[in-house]
Structures are given as C-alpha cells and as structure tokens.
Amino acid sequence: QVDRLIPVAGKEQSTEFKHLFNTTTTKSISDGHLWFSVFLRPPRSRFTRCQRVVSCFALLYLSMLVNMMWYERVPDQPSNGLNVGPFTLTLEQVGVGIMSNLIVFPVSFLIIIFFRKARPKNLRKSRIEEALERSKAKRSINGSQVSLTISEQSSSTISSDIKNDKKKARKKKFTLPWWFQIIGWLLALICMGVSSFFLTLYGIQLGNNKTTKWFISLCFSFFSSLLFVQPFKIFITAMFISCIFKSGNLDEDDADEDEEDPCLEQDEDWLHAKADNGYRYKSIDRKRMDCKKIDEETLKKLREKRRKENEMWNIIIEIFTYSMFLWIFMLISYGQRDPNIYFHVYQKAFLHIG
C-alpha cells in the first residue's frame, strides 16, 4: 500500500521561488495571456470569454491599422536583416512593431481593465442559499419539510456580522462601477469599426502588391507575438514576482465578491471560521474521511502508467529542444547565404565563359 504524509505548508513553503514561479506562470497563461485565456479562462473570473474575444479582435484590428499606417515609413530598400525562410526581419520592421505596440497598448489596456474590473450590476444569489432552497424543496416533496425560516431581525443581524467579518478578513479589491462594461463594449466596437474603415481605404491606396507584403509581414508579427513575445513577458513577470515581491497571496477570485452573503441560522457557524492567527477548523470525523483502499494490482498498473507518462513527456521535451537547436543552427549557417551560390559554383567549375 501507499503511505504518504502530506505536511501543512507554512509561510516559507508558500513563498519559496519554485512554488511562486509555477503558480504565477500557470495563472498568467490562463488569465494574463489575452489569446490563450479565451480557451483557458478561469471559470471564477468575471472577465467573460465573450469579452476576451472582443478584446482580442479590437487589439488585432488596431494592430493592423497602426501597422499599415507605419508601413509607408519603411523604405523600399530596407537594410540587411535576418532571413527566416521567405521572410526577412529587418531593423525597420522591428521599429515599426515596437511603435505599433506602444500606440495600441493604452487603448487595449483600457478595454481589458474596463471588462476585468467592472462590478456586476446585480449580485448573484448566494450558492449556499440556493442549495438550502433545493434541499428544502426536496424535503417538502418527501413530506418531511423542515422549517428553515428565521426572523428578519436575526437575519439582518447575522448577515451584517458576516459582512463585518469579511471586511476584516480580506482587503477590498479595486473595482469599477458596472456601467464601465458598457464603455468597454462601445470602445471595442468603435475601435473595430474605425479600423475596418481605414484599413479598406489604406488597402486601396497601397495597391495589391504592397498590401500583400504588408499582410504577410503582419501575420509573421502576429504569430511571433503570440508564441514568443507573450510567453516571454509571462516568464519575466513570473521571475519578477517570485524574486522580488515573494507574495503568496496571488488569488484573484471574483466569484465570492460577485454574489450576496449567505445568512446563517442562529445555531449555525462557519465550518472554516477565520481566527486572528490563521484559520481554525472544526474537528472532522476521520471515519468520514477514510478512503477506499486500492488493491496492489491496481497500484502497480497506476505506477506503470505514471512512469510511461513521465518518459513520454521527457522524450517530447528532448525532441522539441533538439529541433529548436537544429533550426537555429541551420538558420545561422545558411540563412544569410545567397540562394544563387550553388549556381556560381557550378558555373565556375564546369563552364568557361568568354
């Protein structure tokens, strides 16, 4: 059998670098990365998936417009750059990308803040009270309804005590009024509409060839930002928080703040009541926590499955690492060579012109 002792994590364990780095990285990918968060959105965040999609499109349209406005500033004969397949990355393109990001950032940041920090217009009903109502309905159907009503005076007293305890237990987060969501929607729609209009005009003005080159450059910039710039930003942020701030309080859950406080009976108490020095828990019957024992044959299969999973991930990481090394090596070795070099070699070796 498996016997595992799991000690309670103290302040040192919760603020160590490895724990903070892994926690911050995971949270930043699922919530901070705007494009990935559309699919990996935390379920208890008030920043909905629909709002994230609108923010992504507003950012994309603004980036397209600003890139096209700056594209005419790039000379027809750019300086020598790094050749990556059919693409050429020059200093001018890097400068255009940096200036475009600086121009787009304030507007996209405002849209995201309006959506993320805006409070709901009406708080949701407490999930505890909803569960009690469902339980009450089931008991009434079975003919054994139990009275769950309390007087209005005691209810208001208990709810006010709960609110006071909540104010003491945690700091109030910065939020915006609910109507900032409307401002965020209007700002995002205006950005997409205005960008679409001017993109059409610029596309007609630039012509087909230059527009095609701009579009290829934009796609390259977009995917490089999606797969390299954003993950690099997440890595730097995680390193900064883990090394300097060392704060274990990284929870930004909005679900508890967006619902009403439950009302307790006079003879009821919180199971996990907050004490002055940490948390105190009521004693729980160990018989209710006993898990069903697993037979030895099942444990062997689970161990073997886990071992194969670890080997699989090690092989995948190793293949990816060697592939990236080979790609960089080939890029440095052959990226700057003239494609006509083999023609000149054969011409000098076998042909004698003149």
Automatic annotation (TrEMBL):
Transmembrane segment boundaries: 53-71, 91-115, 176-202, 214-236, 312-334
Molecular functions per Gene Ontology: calcium channel activity
Any single Gene Ontology cellular-component annotation: membrane
Keywords associated with the record: Membrane, Transmembrane, Transmembrane helix
GO biological process: detection of mechanical stimulus
Protein name: Polycystic kidney disease protein 1-like 2
Organism: Meganyctiphanes norvegica (Northern krill)
